[in-house]
Amino acid sequence: MYSLSLSSSTVGRLPPTHLCLALRIPPPCSRYGRLSPILRSPPLLWRNPRSSPSQPFLLLPHPPRAAAGCNANNDHDRKHGVDHHHGHDHTGEFEYNGVQKAILRFAKAVGWADLADLLREHFQLCCCSMVLLLLAVACPYVLPSRAAKSVQNAFICMAFPLVGVSAALDAVLNVPAGKINIHVLMAFAAFASVFMGNSLEGALLLAMFNLAHIAEEYFTSRSNVDVKELKDSHPDFALKLEVGDDSVQQPFKLEYQKIPVHQLEVGSYILVRAGEAVPVDGEVFQGASTIINEHLTGESKPVDIKVGDAVPGGARNLEGMLIVKTTKTWENSTLNKIVQLTEEGQLNKPKLQRWLDEFSDQYSKVVIALSLVVALIGPLIFKWPFMGTSGSIYRALGLMVAASPCALAVAPLAYATAVSSCASKGILLKGGRVLDAVAACQIVAFDKTGTLTTGKLMCKAIEPIHGHWAQDNRACCNPDCEIEALAVAAAMERGTTHPIGRAVVDHSVGKVLPNVSVESFESLPGRGLSATLSGIKSGNESHQHLDASLGSVEYIASLCKSTSDSDKIKEAVKASLYGSNFVQAALTVNDKVTLFHFEDEPRPGVADVVSTLRDKGKLQLMMLTGDHETSACRVAKAVGISEVYSSLKPEDKLNHVKKSSRDTGGGLIMVGDGINDAPALAAATVGIVLAQRASATAVAVADVLLLQDNISSVPFCIAKARQTTLLVKQSVMLALSCIIFASLLSVLGTLPLWLTVLLHEGGTLLVCLNSIRALNEPTWSWREDMLSLFDGIRCMITRLVEKMRFGSNVVPSAV
C-alpha cells in the first residue's frame, strides 16, 4: 500500500454553465421533460475567443449560451419530430419572424411566457391536473345534481391552466411560422372543444397528451442510458506527475498537478489511484493492478495489467496505484472516440426516420385539410349537424387527434435503442442506417490473418531456397545466410504494423545480428516491401548498397528477370522441407531468395461464430486472404468455412467484394482487422473492423467498429440488426393500425374525443414499449421474437401472481 505526501494545485476552473455542457448534463435549472436542444446537437470543438491561446479546447455541443429556462428573456419554440425530444429552444429573437417576436414580447410583458416555462410538461403538475380532471368526471356520479356542475367546473378551471397555458403559447408561436406539428393539432383540438362546450374533454386531451409525452421521453432516455453513463464515467481532471528524464520519483515523494483532461499531451505521466478511471489512453509505466473495461467493451471480467501493457481511456482501476504514460490526447482517446462516433451515428438516420423528418409538417397539414373536409362536407353529404357531440366539427376534431403522427414518429425509436444496446457490448455503429444495411446482407466475407486467426505470427523456420548453393553441390555458399536474412528482414520490417513484420522483429529479439542500415524504403500494399540496404555482405564480398525485397512468394517470383528463375523459385517453395502448412514470406537480396515460415492459429471461439452465422443466420460465408492456398484452406477447414479465395492482392479483394455485392440482392458484410483491407471494407455494403488493430483509414471507412479484439460480437450485431428492423416494421404497422382505426371510428361518430385521445396516446406508448424491446437479447427470426415476447409476458404475470399470493398470506401483527 502506498503512502503519499502530495501537493496539488488546480490549473484552471470551468465556469458552471461551461462545465455542465462539457459534462453533457442538464444545467441545474432544468427539470424533467425540459431537455435543452443545445444538449442534443453534434459536438464540436470550441475555443473562447477571449481566452488565451493556451486555454484548451472544450468538447461542447455549441458555443456557450444561456441555458434553456434559466432567464426571463427566453424565446419559445416547440418541436415534435422523430428525435422524441420536446424541449424548448430559448436562444434569442433572431430565430423568429416579426409576428412571432411581437407575440413573444406581449407574452413576456404579461408574464405568460414565464408561466408557460414553469408549467410546461412538468410531471407533478400533469399528474395534479389529471387527478383534478378525474374528480371532475366523478362529480355527476357522487354529488347532487345541483352541486355537481359547479364543482365540476371548479375542478376543470383549476386543471386546465396547468396544461393549457403552455400549449396555447406553443400553438400561437408555431402557427405564424407555418409549423403545423402535433402540438398545434392537439392544442387546436383542445381549445376548439372548449368553445364547443366540451371543456372537460379538451382538458383531458391536453393532460393525457402531456403525460404520454413525458412517458415517451422516459422511454427515449432508456434507449440512451448506456451512452449517457459512458459520458459521465470519464474523469474531468487528471493528476499529472512532474517527471524528468523518463524517471519517476519514489512513491512517497510524488508531486502532481491537477489539470483538465483536455490539457494532457502525449507523453505525459499521470497518476491513477485505486477506484479511479484512466483519463486517456496510455501504457503502464509503473505499478501493476486490475482494470475493468465494461463501459468500453461490455466485458465485465477484470483484466490484470503490468508495466508495458496498454490501457484504454475510460478503463477503471480496481486496485493498486498506476503511473501511466499517455499515448493519446483526450480528443483522440478511446472514450472520446466512442462518444463522438455514437453521437455522429445519430446523424446517419435510417430511411424511415429521414422520411418522417421530411414529411412530418406536410402530413400535419394534410390532417388539417382532411379535418376541414369532414367538418364542412359532412353536413352536406351525410346531413350531420355542425355542433354537438355527433356534429361534423366534433368528428373533425376527433379525426385531427386520431390521425396525428405521434405513434408513427416514435417508431424509429428502436434504432436508437439498438445502437445503445450495441454500444454497451463494445459495438459502435455509425448510425441507424447501418442496422438496415446489416439486416439486408446475405454474405459475410472474412479476412484471415488477424481476423479469423490471432494475427500473432511466430517465425518457425528460415530456409534458403534459391541462389545460395555452390554450382557443384548443395552446400550453401554462406553458412550465416539465415542470420543475414533475418537481419535484413528485421531492418526492413522495423516500424511496420503488419503481422508478418511484427513476427520477424519479435524473432530477431535477443539474437546477435549483423548491422544493416535501410537507405530507402517503399511499401507496396498487398505485395510486400522493397528497400535499398547498406552494411551487409553478399557471400565473401562487402557491398555498399544492395536492393532487397520482402513479401509474398508471388511478388518475389514476379521480380525475377527470367521466367525460368521465377519457375525455379515456385518449385523450390513447393519442395520446401517444411511443407506448405505455414504462412510464408520470401526475401530476395542480390538474386538470393530466402523463405520465412510463420505459424498462425485460429482465434478461440471463431468456429462457434462461423457455425452460428451459417446455421442460425443462414448466411453465405467466405474467406478472402492474401495467403497461399494451403495455409488458407487449413484455417478455413479449422473454423468451418468452405468458400476460400486465396493469394489475393488488395485490388483482388476489392473486386471480389464488388462482384459478390452486385450478384446478391442484399449485399455483403466485410469483416477485417483494418490493417491492409481498407479498400474492401469501403466497397462492402457494411464494413466491420477490429478497432484495436485498425488503421485510421480503416476506422474512417468502416461502418461498424468492434472494440473487443475478436469477432465474437459479429453474430450479436447481425442478429440485433435483424431484430431492430423487425421491431420497426411491427411499430409502423401498430402505429398505422391505431391511426386508421381511431380515425374511422372518430369520423363515424362512435368514439368520444377523450377516448380518441386515450386510444391515440395508448398506441404511442405501445410503440415505445415495443421499441425498447431492442434492449433485450436479439433473436434470429420473428418466431423466436414472438416466443421471447410471450415468455416475457408469462414471466411477468407469474411474478405478479406470486406477489399477490405472498401479500394475501401475510398475517397482520397484533396491536
Topology:
Blueprint: H1 16-23, E1 44-46, E2 58-60, H2 98-109, H3 112-119, H4 123-142, H5 145-174, H6 182-195, H7 199-223, H8 225-233, E3 237-241, E4 256-260, E5 269-272, E6 282-286, E7 289-292, H9 294-297, E8 303-305, E9 310-311, E10 316-317, E11 322-326, H10 334-345, H11 351-382, H12 392-402, H13 406-409, H14 413-424, E12 427-429, H15 433-440, E13 443-447, H16 448-452, E14 458-466, H17 481-493, H18 499-508, E15 517-524, E16 528-534, E17 537-538, E18 541-542, E19 546-551, H19 553-558, H20 563-574, E20 583-589, E21 592-599, H21 606-615, E22 620-624, H22 629-639, E23 643-645, H23 650-663, E24 668-672, H24 678-683, E25 686-690, H25 696-701, E26 704-706, H26 714-748, H27 753-771, H28 782-808
Parallel strand pairs: 13-22, 13-24, 22-23, 24-25, 25-26
Antiparallel strand pairs: 1-2, 3-4, 3-5, 5-11, 6-9, 6-11, 7-8, 7-10, 12-26, 14-21, 15-16, 16-19, 17-18, 19-20, 20-21
Helix pairs in contact: 2-5, 3-5, 4-5, 4-7, 5-6, 5-7, 6-7, 6-12, 7-27, 11-12, 12-26, 12-27, 14-26, 15-26, 17-18, 26-27
Domain P-type ATPase A: 255-343
Keywords: ATP-binding, Magnesium, Membrane, Metal-binding, Nucleotide-binding, Translocase, Transmembrane, Transmembrane helix
Pfam families: E1-E2_ATPase, Hydrolase
Brief synopsis:
With about 800 residues, the chain is α+β, with helices and mostly antiparallel strands. The strands form 6 sheets. It has a 7-stranded mixed β-sheet with strand order 12-26-25-24-13-22-23, sandwiched between helices.
